TrEMBL record:
Alphabetized UniProt keyword annotations: Transferase
Domain Aminotransferase class I/classII large: 143-360
Protein's recorded name: Pyridoxal phosphate-dependent transferase
Lineage: Eukaryota, Fungi, Fungi incertae sedis, Zoopagomycota, Kickxellomycotina
InterPro entries per record: Aminotransferase_I/II_large, PyrdxlP-dep_Trfase, PyrdxlP-dep_Trfase_major, PyrdxlP-dep_Trfase_small
Entries under Pfam families matching the protein: Aminotran_1_2
Origin superkingdom: Eukaryota
GO molecular function, one term: transferase activity
Transmembrane annotation, as ranges: none
């Protein structure tokens, strides 16, 4: 008996749908536009480090996640990593940490960020853990509020001052605020100053004043295009909060390949420099071409982001766009499963050459 590749990979009755699964089933696969990974591809030196680590797979990975964890701390806080490293925990993708923190939060309702839709794993975890789910427009503060900033898929972004106000207004005293900054490092070389990870005083003050615990989650599988190796981190408000998460974390959840990859990749400054230079350029090209070819489609998202959220205005058009992209070997993410936005699509930012393949596939959609 062989596996039938035409089936969808997700058990949609049981699991939360995500993009990134079609590529393996397409015999003419060219490029995956359905995920928000970095269009530059996986950094070479880190990939090599990961490959070498496979040779050591007859040993357990270090239980303290070192030296990779300290390397990531030095990346996040170049001037004060020793003070902060014990507030950091690595995970098997951000997904593992999302589930840990949602499980650890005090009992009570969950609420999403203020954007029309957001990445669904927070809600999935809250729901499977039996929490009441508040709607986006519900004014009441929650026991745990989770905001994806920048927001995947809409591309909205709240600068720090607004983010802080949102946290103050939407979390109950004693509750948890979880801020997902997976896409925030794309911001610019100055991303750290605009990140909640730099706001140690605000975080400490909020905890002292109202008992609110602020966590910052990163999925590193997008920035460094390594979704297959699973790599994420969480910055906790205090060392004690971090230990509480570690206590319920499965040991060795981050494998030796992911740790070696991380230890190497944070030193690859050239890759980040290229990311900050090329992503906005490629994104601008993508948006300009879409506006020229499909003037009725609305594109949204900050100019620095690695994807474009598109509203075609018509669910039939969106469905056809998804089919055409798939047939051409360049799958895109439908807005329907999970996000329930049937006229929307999300496409990754890729080089103009690769984007041209997608654009050609969509020519039959022009009026
Ligand atoms: C905003 C956001 N957070 C978290 C994740 C989960 O990432 P990981 O692959 O690290 O589990 C994703 C993946 O798409 C994401 O977009």
């Amino acid at each position: 008996m062989t596996f039938d590749a035409s089936q969808t990979a997700w058990d949609e009755k049981t699991q939360q749908f995500h993009g990134g699964q079609d590529w393996a089933t397409l015999s003419n696969f060219v490029e995956d536009f359905s995920v928000t990974t970095n269009g530059l591809g996986t950094p070479r030196t880190a990939l090599e480090a990961g490959r070498k680590a496979v040779d050591l797979c007859d040993h357990y990975p270090p239980a303290n996640q070192e030296p990779a964890k300290s390397s990531l701390a030095a990346f996040l806080w170049p001037d004060s990593y020793q003070r902060n490293v014990n507030r950091l925990l690595l995970g098997n993708g951000a997904s593992e940490l999302i589930d840990l923190v949602v499980r650890k939060a005090p009992a009570g309702p969950w609420k999403p960020g203020p954007f029309s839709v957001q990445y669904k794993e927070y809600e999935r975890s809250a729901s499977t853990n039996g929490r009441p789910l508040l709607k986006v427009n519900d004014d009441s503060p929650a026991a745990i509020a989770c905001i994806v900033n920048p927001c995947n898929p809409t591309g909205d972004y709240k600068p720090l001052n607004q983010l802080k106000k949102w946290v103050e207004a939407n979390v109950q005293d004693g509750g948890f605020a979880v801020i997902d900054e997976s896409m925030q490092p794309w911001h610019s070389p100055g991303f750290r100053e605009d990140s909640m990870t730099s706001q140690t005083e605000f975080v400490a003050d909020l905890y002292a004043r109202r008992g609110i615990s602020v966590y910052v989650i990163h999925s590193w599988t997008k920035l460094w295009s390594c979704t297959g190796i699973r790599l994420g981190s969480i910055v906790c408000p205090t060392e004690e909060h971090c230990q509480a998460l570690k206590k319920i974390q499965v040991p060795w959840s981050v494998n030796c390949v992911a740790l070696a990859f991380l230890h190497a990749v944070v030193k690859d400054e050239a890759y980040l420099h290229d990311t900050w230079t090329l992503t906005p350029r490629w994104r601008h090209h993508t948006v300009a071409a879409l506006q020229e070819y499909f003037p009725n489609w609305l594109t949204s998202g900050e100019p620095f982001l690695s994807w474009v959220w598109i509203d075609t205005g018509d669910m039939i058009v969106a469905e056809r766009a998804i089919q055409l992209a798939k047939q051409a070997g360049v799958p895109v993410r439908s807005g329907l499963p999970g996000y329930q936005q049937p006229s929307h699509l999300r496409i990754a930012v890729r080089s103009p050459e690769k984007f041209q393949i997608l654009l050609n596939a969509w020519l039959p959609l022009r009026n």
